[in-house]
Write a structure and sequence with these properties.
heterodimer, A: 377 residues, alpha/beta, 8-stranded mixed sheet, 32% helix, B: 407 residues, 5-stranded antiparallel sheet, 14 helices, globular
Chain lengths: 377, 407
C-alpha cells in the first residue's frame, strides 16, 4: 500500500516523543501507535485447491491501517458493519494475530512480545465488549467476573479482591451488595457496568471499547456514556472507542477515524470532521443519520446507493468509487494516498489535491444515478 | 379536535370517517409461569388515511406486541384480553351488519368480534408487516421470488373472489398437498405471479430483478433483503403497513435508503404506515404523529412537533435528553435513572408506572393518571399530572420511596 509511506512522514514527530517504558505525561504523546496494520482471514484450502496450486481466498478485514491514540484522549473508530473496526480493536490488543504491521504500546512492540511480556501488557490494556449478555460468564457471580483478572495476575488475596470488587461495583453505579449475584439477575445496562468494572479492575491505562452501548436502550445508553466520561477523568484512561453510531462518537470522542472496507479513509479531530468532512464517505455517513429535530426535513436524506462491496474482492482504485457520488474515472484507476487536509487531519480522497488528474477525468456516470436505479455488488 | 383526542384516549366513542384503523382500550397479557405480564395496557390510538404514525419506546415497552395484537398474531401464552380494533372496510361491514355478534359502526367493523378466519384473511390484502430482522423473516430454503409470488397469489385469489372472507390459503388441504407432490408444475404460484414479483422487486430498487428472483435469501445482503420484504408486504396492496423496527438491523447509509423507499411507497400508494422504532431520529424524519410508549401504555401522543418540541411527560423529556446531539456534542447527557420495569402484574402497583424513575415524582403520582389534553389543536395529550399543574417540590416523594433499588 502506497499510503503507508506517506503516512509515516506525518507521524515521525510524535513517534520520536514516545518515551520508552517511562510514563508519558498527559498531552499529545502517542500511547498506542499503529502502522500499516493488516489482518486477513484466510479460507481453509480444499485438497483440490492445493493440488491445483490455487491461492487461498482471503478476506481483507483490515488492510493497511495506521493511526495513533494519544495519552488521555478518546479516539473513535467509526464505520458500517464489515468495515473492520472491531477486528482493528481486537488486533490492537493482540486478541487476534495481525497478518502484517506494527503496533506500539508505550514504546514497546506488541506483536513481537513474548508470553510474559504479553501478560504484563494485558494488565495495562483492557477491553469492553459489545454484547453484555454473551460477554459475561453466566456461571460466575458479579464479584468473580470483576476480579478474575486480579486472580489471573495473582494480585491481592481473596479478601482484598472482594473489597476491590465492592469498590468497583460502587464506582460503576451498582450496589456493592450485588456482588454475589449472577449475570442473569442484572439488566442489560447493569451488565455493561459489570463489563466496565471488569475492565477497570487491573487499573489499566488503555481501554478498547467495542460498541459498548449499541445493545442498550437510549436512556441506559446515556447513563453508560456519562459513566465512561467520568471514569476517564477519574482514572486518566485512554479510550479506543469503536462504534457505528455517529452521534455517540461525536459525543464522546476527541478524534475520530472513519473506516471503509478495511481502510481508514479520514482521520482528525471530531469537531472538524463533523463540521466539514473531507471525504465523500464521511459526508454521506453524516448525511444518513436521522436527526432528532422537527425542522430539518428536506425530503431525501439518502446520499449513497448500493451496498458495501465484499471485502473478499474489494474494488480496485479507491475502494469507495463504486458508491461515491463524486467518483471520476481516476478513482477507478489508482487508490488515493493519505492526503493531509491540514496538520491535524488526513483524508484518502483525490479531492484534497487541487492539482490531481482527478479533476480532469470523466465523472463515473452510473454513480450519479438516483436511488431507483440502485446498483449492488 | 379535542373530541378526537378524547376518543383516542378511550372515551368510548366510535371511530372517525378518515380513520383506517381505530384502536381502543387494547390490552394484551402474557400468562407465563412467572405470572401475568401486562405487555399492552389499555392502548388507544387511530391511524388515518395517508399518514405515517410513529410508535416509539424502549425495549419492553410493548410497542411490538401492540402491532402484533392489531393483526392478531399474538401467540400463546399471550392473549388479547380486552379492546376494540375498528377497521374501515365498507364491504366487510355490510357483510356482517346483520350479524349480532359483530360490532359494526358505519363503514367500520370491530375486528375483535369477527371470526378468526376473517381476521386471518385480512392479513396481506389489508394489513402487511415488515419485521425487524430480514434474515430470519424469510424462509432460507425457498427463493426470494417464490416467497413474494406467494404473497401476490394470495392477493390475486382474494380479488378474484372478493366476497369470500375465507382465508385464501385454507382451501389447500392434504389432498392438494399429495397431488402437488406427485404432479409436477402444480405449485401455489404461477407464471403471472412470478412476473408480478419481478415487478415488485424492481419497484423497491433491486437491480436485475429478473435474475435475483431465483436467488435464495442467503444470497441477498441485509439491505436488499429488507427491500425484498417490503416488496412482499406491498404484494397484497395493503391499506395499512406495519413496519416494526424496519431499519434497526441495518447500517446508517442503508437505513437511509430503506426509509426513503418507505416514504416513496407511502406517497405513491397513499396507504398508511405504522412505524415502530426505538430510534427517535427515525421518528423525526418520517412521522406525522407520534405515540410514546412506556411500560405497555401510551404515555404521550401528538403531532411530531408537539411531542418533540414541547414534551410534557418526564419520560419523553428523558428520552430526548438521552440522545447525543450531532450538532452540539459537548453538553452532558441527561439520562433517565434506573431501568425499564419488568411488567409483571404482581409487581405493578396501581400508580404512574414511571414514578419510580421520574425526577419529578410527587404524591399525586401514586394514583394512576388519566390522559390529559395538553393542546387540543396539536392533538397533544399526556398521561401525567404535569400536563395540568406544575411540579411542586413540597409534594415530592422522598428519594428512597421506591426502596432506592434503582441504579
Amino acid at each position: 500500500m502506497t499510503d503507508i509511506d506517506t503516512h509515516t512522514d506525518a507521524t515521525v514527530d510524535s513517534q520520536t516523543n514516545v518515551g520508552t517504558g517511562t510514563e508519558t505525561t498527559l498531552g499529545g504523546d502517542a500511547l498506542v501507535s499503529i502502522e500499516g496494520l493488516k489482518k486477513y482471514y484466510v479460507n481453509e484450502q480444499s485438497i483440490i485447491d492445493r493440488v491445483l496450486g490455487n491461492d487461498p481466498e482471503s478476506v481483507k478485514a483490515v488492510d493497511g491501517v495506521s493511526f495513533e491514540v494519544a495519552e488521555g484522549e478518546t479516539l473513535g473508530i467509526v464505520g458500517e458493519s464489515g468495515c473492520g473496526k472491531s477486528t482493528t480493536g481486537e488486533t490492537v490488543l493482540r486478541l487476534r494475530e495481525a497478518t502484517e504491521g506494527q503496533i506500539t504500546f508505550d514504546g514497546e512492540d506488541i506483536l513481537t512480545m513474548s508470553d510474559d511480556e504479553l501478560t504484563a501488557f494485558r494488565k495495562r490494556a483492557q477491553i469492553v465488549f459489545q454484547d453484555p449478555f454473551s460477554s459475561l460468564d453466566p456461571r460466575m457471580t458479579a464479584g468473580d467476573i470483576i476480579t478474575e483478572g486480579l486472580r489471573i495476575h495473582g494480585i491481592a488475596d481473596q479478601a482484598e479482591r472482594r473489597e476491590t470488587a465492592r469498590d468497583l461495583l460502587d464506582r460503576v453505579g451498582l450496589s456493592a451488595d450485588q456482588i454475589d449475584r449472577y449475570p442473569h439477575e442484572f439488566s442489560g445496562g447493569q451488565r455493561q457496568r459489570i463489563g466496565i468494572a471488569r475492565a477497570l479492575a487491573l487499573d489499566p491505562e488503555f481501554v478498547v471499547l467495542d460498541e459498548p452501548v449499541s445493545a442498550l436502550d437510549v436512556s441506559v445508553q446515556a447513563q453508560i456514556l456519562n459513566l465512561l466520561d467520568d471514569l476517564q477523568d477519574e482514572f486518566g484512561l485512554t479510550y479506543l472507542f469503536i462504534a457505528h453510531n455517529l452521534s455517540v462518537v461525536r459525543h464522546i470522542c476527541d478524534r475520530v477515524a472513519v473506516m471503509y472496507l478495511g481502510e481508514i479513509v479520514e482521520t482528525g479531530p471530531v469537531d472538524e470532521i463533523f463540521a466539514d468532512p473531507a471525504h465523500p464517505y464521511t459526508k454521506a455517513l453524516l448525511a444518513s443519520v436521522p436527526r432528532v429535530s422537527t425542522e430539518a426535513r428536506e425530503g431525501d436524506f439518502a446520499t449513497l446507493h448500493g451496498d458495501v462491496p465484499s471485502p473478499r474482492d474489494p474494488p480496485t482504485g479507491c475502494r469507495f468509487h463504486t458508491r461515491c457520488p463524486q467518483a471520476r474515472a481516476a478513482c477507478r484507476e489508482s487508490a488515493p494516498p493519505d492526503y493531509a487536509v491540514n496538520d491535524r487531519r488526513r483524508a484518502k480522497c483525490f479531492r484534497n489535491d487541487a492539482d490531481h488528474a482527478y479533476w480532469d477525468s470523466e465523472p463515473i456516470e452510473e454513480n450519479a444515478r438516483s436511488l431507483e436505479a440502485d446498483a449492488t455488488q | 379536535m379535542s373530541e378526537r383526542l378524547q376518543a383516542a384516549s378511550g372515551a368510548g366513542r366510535g371511530p372517525d370517517a378518515d380513520d383506517v384503523l381505530s384502536v381502543s382500550n387494547l390490552s394484551t397479557r402474557f400468562f407465563t409461569e412467572e405470572g401475568q405480564i401486562n405487555a399492552v395496557e389499555s392502548v388507544s390510538f387511530d391511524i388515518r388515511d395517508n399518514e405515517i404514525l410513529g410508535i416509539v419506546g424502549e425495549s419492553g415497552s410493548g410497542k411490538s406486541v401492540t402491532s402484533l395484537s392489531l393483526i392478531d398474531l399474538v401467540e400463546s401464552p399471550g392473549r388479547i384480553t380486552e379492546g376494540e380494533v375498528w377497521y374501515r372496510n365498507p364491504e366487510l361491514a355490510d357483510e356482517f351488519r346483520s350479524n349480532d355478534a359483530v360490532s359494526v359502526d358505519g363503514d367500520h367493523i370491530d375486528l375483535r368480534t369477527v371470526p378468526p378466519r376473517v381476521r386471518r384473511s385480512l392479513r396481506g390484502p389489508s394489513f402487511s408487516t415488515i419485521f425487524q430482522d430480514p434474515m430470519s423473516s424469510f424462509n432460507p430454503s425457498i427463493t426470494v421470488g417464490e416467497q413474494i409470488a406467494e404473497a401476490v397469489e394470495v392477493q390475486r385469489r382474494a380479488t378474484a373472489n372478493p366476497r369470500s372472507t375465507r382465508s385464501r390459503t385454507q382451501g389447500y388441504g392434504l389432498g392438494q398437498y399429495l397431488l402437488d407432490g406427485i404432479v409436477p408444475g402444480r405449485g401455489y404460484t404461477s407464471e403471472e405471479s412470478m412476473d408480478r414479483a419481478i415487478e415488485l422487486l424492481e419497484q423497491v430498487g433491486i437491480p436485475d430483478p429478473a435474475d435475483r428472483v431465483d436467488e435464495y435469501p442467503g444470497q441477498f445482503s441485509g439491505g436488499m433483503l429488507q427491500r425484498a420484504m417490503i416488496a412482499q408486504a406491498l404484494a397484497g396492496e395493503p391499506d395499512v403497513l406495519i413496519a416494526d423496527e424496519p431499519t434497526t438491523a441495518l447500517d446508517v447509509t442503508i437505513q437511509a435508503q430503506i426509509l426513503n423507499l418507505l416514504r416513496e411507497v407511502q406517497e405513491e400508494r397513499g396507504m398508511s404506515i405504522i412505524l415502530i422504532t426505538h430510534d427517535l431520529g427515525v421518528i423525526a424524519e418520517m412521522c406525522d404523529r407520534v405515540c410514546v410508549m412506556y411500560a405497555g401504555e401510551i404515555v404521550e401522543r401528538g403531532t411530531l412537533s408537539a411531542v418533540f418540541d414541547d414534551p410534557v411527560h418526564p419520560y419523553t423529556q428523558g428520552l430526548l435528553g438521552s440522545i447525543p446531539d450531532l450538532e452540539d456534542p459537548r453538553s452532558r447527557l441527561q439520562p433517565i435513572d434506573g431501568n425499564v420495569p419488568g411488567l409483571l402484574d404482581s409487581e405493578m402497583d396501581d400508580r404512574c408506572y414511571f414514578a419510580d424513575r421520574c425526577p419529578k415524582a410527587m404524591q399525586s403520582c401514586l394514583e394512576k393518571p388519566d390522559e390529559i389534553v395538553v393542546d387540543a389543536e396539536a392533538e397533544h395529550g399526556a398521561k401525567c399530572v404535569l400536563a395540568e399543574r406544575s411540579y411542586d417540590p413540597d409534594e415530592a416523594l422522598p428519594a428512597d420511596y421506591f426502596g432506592g433499588d434503582s441504579e
